[in-house]
């Protein structure tokens, strides 16, 4: 079992778009194992490779007793239904803020062996898949918040014991219109 440290808000790797996986090799399989072991130890719902400092497009998930991983995910949204509820992040420990996401998602990508996979999710699974795919694009859930919720989140971050006032992190606006999920389904 390999549990690795999770990069925290403010680390530049979390703001850097990840590169597509091109080699489905032993190194990738080890990354999936490390992500899975770390996620289990942290008892989270999802974990993306950049959160471990690895800039490739891979994430693992464990939602409602469904575990797995997706490499090079591409998202589609089958409808316009939305959800608005609490969301947190292992890279921003202890901070939970209501965040708008699409209710339903279809993620297409590959498994660690390079075989095609498709994940259809709604509710919490859809939230997790969108959140983790955002990580692969250098986007944090804070970027999806309106100004009032973002201010609330930043206040909680400044009060957190892990926050370093000498190296304050920045929040950027979502690259997607209105801070909403990308209606084209590209990258969360």
Automatic annotation (TrEMBL):
This is Peptide deformylase. InterPro entries: Peptide_deformylase, Peptide_deformylase_sf. It comes from Natronosporangium hydrolyticum. Coiled coil: none annotated. SUPFAM superfamilies: Peptide deformylase. Its EC number is 3.5.1.88. PANTHER family: PEPTIDE DEFORMYLASE (PTHR10458), PEPTIDE DEFORMYLASE, MITOCHONDRIAL (PTHR10458:SF2). Belongs to the polypeptide deformylase family. The gene is def. Fe cation binds at residues 89, 131, 135. The active site is at residue 132. It catalyses: N-terminal N-formyl-L-methionyl-[peptide] + H2O = N-terminal L-methionyl-[peptide] + formate. Its cofactor is Fe(2+). Keywords: Hydrolase, Iron, Metal-binding, Protein biosynthesis.
């Amino acid at each position: 079992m390999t549990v690795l440290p999770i990069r925290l808000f403010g680390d530049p790797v979390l703001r850097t778009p990840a590169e597509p996986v091109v080699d489905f090799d032993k190194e990738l399989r080890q990354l999936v194992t490390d992500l899975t072991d770390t996620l289990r130890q942290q008892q989270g719902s999802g974990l993306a490779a950049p959160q471990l400092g690895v800039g490739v497009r891979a994430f693992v998930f464990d939602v409602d007793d469904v575990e797995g991983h997706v490499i090079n995910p591409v998202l589609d949204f089958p409808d316009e239904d939305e959800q608005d509820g609490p969301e947190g992040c292992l890279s921003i420990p202890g901070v939970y803020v209501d965040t708008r996401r699409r209710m339903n998602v279809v993620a297409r990508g590959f498994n660690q062996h390079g075989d095609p996979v498709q994940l259809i999710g709604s509710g919490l699974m859809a939230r997790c898949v969108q959140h983790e795919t955002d990580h692969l694009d250098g986007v944090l859930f804070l970027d999806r918040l309106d100004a009032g919720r973002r201010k609330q989140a930043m206040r909680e971050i400044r009060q957190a014991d892990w926050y370093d006032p000498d190296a304050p992190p920045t929040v950027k606006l979502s690259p997607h219109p209105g801070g909403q999920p990308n209606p084209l389904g590209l990258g969360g």
